[in-house]
Amino acid sequence: MVAVVLAGVAAGTINTVVGSGTLITFPVLLAVGYAPLVANVSNTIGLVPGSMSGAIGYRRELAGQRGRILRLGAAALLGGTTGAALLLILPEEAFQAIVPAFIALALVLIVLQPRLARRLAARRGEVAEHRRASAAATYGTGIYGGYFGAAQGILLIGALGLLLPESLQRLNALKNVLAGLVNLVAGVVFAFVAPVAWGAALLVAAGSVVGGVIGARYGRRLSPVALRGVIVVVGLVAIAQLLF
Predict the structure, then answer these.
(1) To 10 degrees, what angle do helices 2-17 and 224-243 make?
(2) Comparing C-alpha atoms, which of 180, 108, 193, 168 is closest to residue 142?
(3) Residue 103, domain extent
(4) Rounded to 10 degrees, what is the CA torsion of 180, 244, 110, 7?
(5) Which of the two ends of the chain, N or C, has the fewest CB atoms closer than 10 A to its terminal CB?
(6) Number of separate domains in the chain
(7) SS3 for the chain, per residue?
(8) CB neighbours (10 Å) of residue 141?
(9) Mean of the per-residue pLDDT values for the chain?
């Protein structure tokens, strides 16, 4: 119980600052004896409160993004529902095989984001096209997040950083809301049709709430360069863990 709560704290912190907290809680749930499917769905439900506390902590950076949250939030909910359905009908190995490649691509986008964003700014064209692209990216990462979720936040920041003219901290705040919506809708689906270990989910939830507060408090203080560095380090660790 202590191990699961502490894993929840760590995951809530990392999810708020970067993303990929699932790579902490999921292995811990496996280590204490839960089957992979049970661990996956219980973890998804447990991390929802942490996403909420992290989003509240970033409320200052969310100012002025209400319309964007509504638009991209709908895409996130649809993507999370699709991913949750896929988890129940497809083998987990189907996505795990390409997850490291997705994370590596996201890290490259994050490192090059300032330069690429400047070059793309003059080519973006109409706002409607930009909005469609960001909605499509949110839907795609939502599918992945509803299915497995590890490094969903890294993928979101990597994609939206090229499509939205915002600072990295404001993108991170938006990421917390969108990833939270994905976990929420997937958790609702799992609660009704999947084998949830509610004791484990509650322990993860308790820890993730605390972690979300910690992550928001300290993550908001990081400079764009430092935040980018943290994202890259966590992403590389995630790739190594998934591969080896």
Answers:
(1) 130
(2) 180
(3) 2-243
(4) 30
(5) C
(6) 1
(7) CHHHHHHHHHHHHHHHHCCCCHHHHHHHHHHCCCCHHHHHHHHHHHCHHHHHHHHHHCHHHHCCCHHHHHHHHHHHHHHHHHHHHHHHHCCCHHHHCCHHHHHHHHHHHHHHHHHHHHHHHCCCCCHHHHHHHHHHHHHHHHHHHHHCCCCHHHHHHHHHHHHCCCCHHHHHHHHHHHHHHHHHHHHHHHHHHCCCCHHHHHHHHHHHHHHHHHHHHHHCCCCHHHHHHHHHHHHHHHHHHHHC
(8) 32
(9) 84
Tell me the residue length of the chain.
244
Alpha-carbon span 74 to 82, nearest angstrom: 12
Q: What's the whole-number mean pLDDT along residues 5-15?
A: 91
Identity of the residue numbered 123: R
- Which tokens belong to 194? 């999947």
d(CA 143, CA 134): 14
